């Protein structure tokens, strides 16, 4: 990345338009941004950052507005930066959200933020716009730079003060800065995931243990007996084996009883079967005789069904022809109806009844031919509408130009000389009136802070007294609530027997002694304490205790705040502080009014000069506009008159040519539809006549006098099938009834005495009930054995499953504690995220150590250390300095001011190298070093300059931001920032 040109307007301390040519400054590789403190050197870097990211670094963007206080009212704040990124030359223009004066009337109106990105085209030799979207431009620049704003501010705009703090900071503060620069949040996410994984493993193990307890409870329910005490996994397996043995013995007894009952049931069933078979034969013979007689009585109806079926079968041979005839007649009716609708839709002059399709087609062709002629005039009609619009626009433009010309001539003749003379007098009168405002502002700020502290001290004294009374009252309330809770708890314990007795149920075991009989249950006293009452009292006590602790903590904060306010107010009375602040405020206001009067007058004079130029230009432009409008109006009037004659004839009374074309198109469409309908009706009528002739001929051939009789004899498929089935069913039923009535077996059974199976059925029912009871007992015993076996197997599986879950939980716990730095095996108590940051810090320290050795003449080297921190705190982000003169390591806090500058500058440059590599290796051809050179002696400055000179390799430019005078003599290319009452100014020198 290389900067070429920066232009700022009404930005920060710069009231006007300032331009920085970085190509000229960086021609020697090293250049200086010089100027007094507060002149705006750092604001140049703020403008670069604002152009790239839309905001300025750190707290500067939050502390004040980007707009200059010295800017004229009508001048917009903007920053324009030309630079090369990734081999592309770009130009970025940004304007923040701001207010500008209204163009008409008084007051101001908000101006939205604006961002424009352009790219230089070598083929066209000009700037080509790329985008005007904040989001698109931000995303494209972020991708090209490869760094976030925080990384850019730490790597390209090297802030020495922050790195001096980083050098002496503790591990937590270093972790925060490195975490922002290297984005190691994903490693923290790994730590959180491992913690969640340990919790999941713990829940899984607890779930298996809960399954084991549930299995034991279900075994107890299945066996009808409970275990003695709480069982471990192995004890539960042994107890389950005993239950299975006892259930198997009960199953064997039930099997013997079931076998005896089954034998008795089989004998009774055999006797019932023989009696039932004889009864069934006798009944079948009786039903066969009845069925035969009933079918013989239906014989005449059977003959009629057979004749009807024969006629239907003959009619079925001509059914397709009859169906085709019906379809042809229906189609002829539909076509005739369609012909009538189409003819009725025609114009009145074409409603003749004997109209022919050929006549309709001729009328259709005539309408279509006329439509084609009219379509050629559609463009002429559009041009007529355009002429009307152009004429109206020219008339409005002419009126606006006339108004603008009159206004400009009046202002230039009257207002301009009078207002300019008044503004010049005000500038000369207020030039030397405002002095000493900065000193008064500092004194006023200190007085305001003391007054605010005094007022806060007085207010806090009242709040402290109120808080002490509140704490005393809450302490007493807490004691009373605790005594009330303990008293209720004691009374409930004393009446616990009655509370347990209230839960007893007849026949159910007692929860205390296990007895199922309850001869003398305890009775509740009239004032028996319920569990709900005890819980309510305990909740009241907990609430009172929490309120007391919160009030006590708040009182402590108030006391500390009151002490701090007393110290800041210098123990002076509030009235005295207020009088002092008011006096300084009046002096400062007088100074500000004097300075503001001069600045306002200067801005007014500049505004008048610009307005004079604008008014003169507007007058010339208005005169040119009036002449051009008159000429264009004359030309449009002549063209419009010619078009009116042609279009009036073409419309023939219609609203427009398009409407006339639409009417002719509709007439042609109706004529075409009517011609098709007439043709279709004629064809359908001929088809119906032909179909009737064929149908009549075929019906006569199969024995029907006419098609109508054949249609009446025909039956539908379902009706014919039902008739045929009835004929068949009657014949087959009569044959079966005759055969069964003559069966020798049934005739022999009918000759025997009448069978009565009721007695044998009652005996069989009794044996069946006995067998059912035996079967139920056997099934219950078998089910219990199977259930106990299944539950025992499940219990064994749960005990087996518990072991891997326990092992997994142990592994997950150890791994989670290891990456979190709480495991005993993690001797350095270093978390995973700290480990990654330590590796990055080690790279930074290695790169910084080489530069520190060069700046210190080989004496100091900066190194990373993993040594344990004090008080057993976590380690991994330590820094130490190796002193080659003594051969010992020194803590960074022992370095002097100049040595700290060496170390912090080396640390900043090393971090720039590492972050650049981390961001994808984007070459940084322009760097800035901000302040810190004032603490160096001549020799140290020489060493630092040698290191900075080495940064210029590979065509890199380094800018130094400083007010140190020695640097002005050493660096030829300089950008000077000068501070004045109308804002700071920039000038370049070589």
UniProtKB/TrEMBL annotation:
GO terms for molecular function: ATP hydrolysis activity. The keyword DNA repair does not apply. Gene3D superfamilies: P-loop containing nucleotide triphosphate hydrolases. Residues 391-400 have a biased composition (Basic and acidic residues). Pfam families: AAA_23, SbcC_Walker_B. Keywords: Coiled coil. Residues 5-283 form the Rad50/SbcC-type AAA domain. Residues 534-646 form a coiled coil. Residues 391-415 are annotated as: Disordered. One of its GO terms (biological process) is double-strand break repair. Belongs to the SMC family. SbcC subfamily. Heterodimer of SbcC and SbcD. This is Nuclease SbcCD subunit C.
């Amino acid at each position: 990345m290389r900067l070429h040109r920066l232009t700022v307007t009404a930005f920060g301390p710069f009231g006007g338009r300032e331009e920085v040519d970085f190509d000229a400054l960086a021609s020697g590789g090293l250049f200086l941004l010089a100027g007094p403190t507060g002149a705006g050197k750092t604001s140049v870097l703020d403008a670069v950052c604002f152009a790239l990211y839309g905001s300025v670094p750190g707290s500067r963007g939050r502390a004040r507005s980007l707009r200059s206080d010295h800017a004229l009212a009508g001048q917009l704040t903007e920053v324009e930066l030309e630079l090369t990124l990734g081999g592309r030359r770009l130009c970025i223009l940004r304007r923040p959200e701001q207010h500008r004066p209204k163009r008409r009337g008084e007051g101001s109106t908000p101006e939205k933020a604006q961002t424009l990105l352009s790219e230089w085209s070598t083929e066209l030799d000009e700037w080509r716009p790329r985008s005007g979207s904040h989001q698109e431009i931000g995303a494209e620049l972020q991708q090209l730079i490869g760094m976030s704003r925080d990384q850019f501010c730490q790597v390209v705009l090297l802030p020495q003060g922050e790195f001096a703090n980083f050098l002496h900071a503790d591990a937590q503060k270093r972790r925060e800065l490195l975490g922002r620069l290297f984005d190691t949040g994903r490693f923290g996410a790994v730590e959180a995931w491992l913690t969640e994984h340990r919790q999941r493993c713990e829940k899984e193990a607890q779930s298996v243990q809960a399954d084991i307890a549930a299995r034991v409870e279900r075994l107890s329910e299945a066996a009808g007996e409970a275990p003695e005490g709480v069982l471990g996994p192995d004890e539960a397996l042994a107890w389950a084996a005993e239950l299975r043995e006892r259930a198997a013995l009960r199953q064997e007894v039930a099997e013997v009883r079931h076998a005896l009952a089954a034998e008795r049931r089989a004998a009774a069933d055999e006797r019932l079967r023989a009696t039932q078979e004889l009864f069934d034969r006798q009944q079948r013979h009786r039903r066969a005789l009845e069925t035969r007689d009933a079918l013989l009585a239906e014989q005449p109806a059977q003959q009629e069904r057979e004749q009807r079926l024969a006629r239907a079968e003959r009619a079925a041979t001509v059914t397709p022809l009859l169906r085709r005839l019906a379809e042809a007649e229906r189609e002829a009716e539909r076509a005739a109806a369609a012909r009538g609708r189409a003819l009725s839709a025609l114009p009145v002059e074409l409603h003749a009844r004997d109209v022919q399709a050929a006549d309709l087609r001729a009328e259709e062709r005539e309408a279509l031919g006329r439509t084609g002629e009219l379509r050629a005039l559609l463009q002429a009609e559009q041009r007529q509408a355009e002429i009307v619009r152009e004429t109206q626009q020219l008339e409005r433009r002419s009126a606006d130009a006339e108004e603008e010309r009159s206004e400009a001539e009046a202002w230039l003749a009257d207002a301009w000389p009078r207002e300019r003379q008044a503004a010049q007098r005000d500038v000369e009168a207020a030039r030397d009136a405002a002095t000493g405002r900065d000193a008064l502002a500092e004194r006023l700020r200190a007085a305001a802070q003391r007054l605010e502290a005094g007022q806060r001290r007085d207010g806090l004294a009242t709040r402290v007294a109120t808080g002490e009374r509140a704490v005393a009252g809450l302490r007493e309330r807490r004691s009373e609530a605790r005594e009330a809770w303990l008293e209720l708890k004691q009374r409930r314990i004393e009446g616990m027997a009655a509370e347990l007795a209230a839960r007893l149920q007849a026949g159910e075991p007692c929860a205390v002694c296990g007895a199922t009989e309850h001869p003398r249950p305890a009775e509740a006293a009239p004032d028996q304490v319920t569990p709900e009452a005890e819980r309510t009292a305990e909740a009241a006590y907990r609430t009172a205790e929490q309120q007391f602790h919160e009030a006590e903590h708040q009182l402590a904060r108030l006391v500390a705040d009151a002490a701090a306010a007393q110290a800041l107010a210098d123990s002076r009375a509030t009235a005295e502080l207020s009088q002092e602040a008011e006096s300084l405020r009046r002096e400062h206001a007088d100074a500000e009014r004097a300075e503001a009067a001069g600045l306002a007058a200067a801005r007014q004079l500049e505004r008048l000069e610009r307005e004079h130029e604008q008014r003169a230009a507007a007058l010339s432009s208005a005169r040119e506009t009036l002449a051009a409008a008159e000429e264009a109006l004359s030309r449009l009037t002549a063209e419009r008159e010619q078009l009116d004659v042609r279009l009036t004839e073409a419309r023939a009374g219609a609203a427009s040519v398009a409407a006339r074309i639409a009417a002719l198109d509709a007439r042609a469409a109706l004529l075409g539809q009517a011609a098709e309908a007439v043709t279709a009706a004629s064809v359908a009528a001929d088809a119906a006549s032909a179909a009737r002739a064929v149908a009549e001929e075929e019906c006569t051939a199969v024995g029907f006098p006419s098609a109508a009789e054949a249609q009446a004899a025909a039956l539908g498929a379902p009706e014919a099938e039902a008739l045929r089935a009835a004929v068949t069913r009657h014949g087959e039923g009569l044959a079966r009834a005759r055969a069964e009535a003559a069966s020798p077996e049934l005739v022999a059974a009918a000759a025997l005495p009448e069978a009565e199976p009721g007695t044998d059925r009652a005996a069989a029912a009794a044996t069946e009930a006995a067998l059912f009871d035996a079967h139920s007992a056997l099934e219950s015993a078998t089910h219990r054995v199977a259930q106990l076996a299944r539950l025992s197997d499940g219990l064994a599986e749960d005990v087996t499953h518990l072991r891997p879950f326990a092992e997994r939980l142990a592994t997950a716990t150890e791994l989670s504690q290891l990456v979190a730095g709480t495991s005993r095996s993690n001797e350095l108590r270093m978390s995973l995220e700290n480990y990654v940051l330590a590796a990055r810090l080690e790279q930074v320290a290695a790169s910084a150590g080489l530069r520190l050795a060069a700046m210190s003449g080989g004496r100091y080297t900066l190194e990373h250390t993993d040594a344990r921190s004090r008080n057993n705190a976590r380690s991994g982000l330590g820094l130490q300095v190796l002193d080659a003169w003594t051969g010992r390591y020194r803590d960074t806090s022992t370095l002097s001011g100049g040595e700290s500058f060496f170390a912090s500058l080396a640390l900043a440059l090393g971090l720039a190298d590492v972050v650049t590599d981390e961001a994808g290796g984007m070459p940084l051809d322009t760097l800035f070093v901000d302040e810190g050179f004032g603490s160096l002696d001549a020799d140290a400055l020489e060493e630092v300059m040698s290191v900075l000179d080495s940064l210029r390799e590979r065509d890199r430019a380094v800018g130094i931001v400083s007010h140190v005078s020695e640097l002005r003599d050493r660096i030829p290319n300089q950008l000077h920032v000068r501070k004045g009452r109308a804002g700071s100014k920039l000038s370049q020198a070589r």
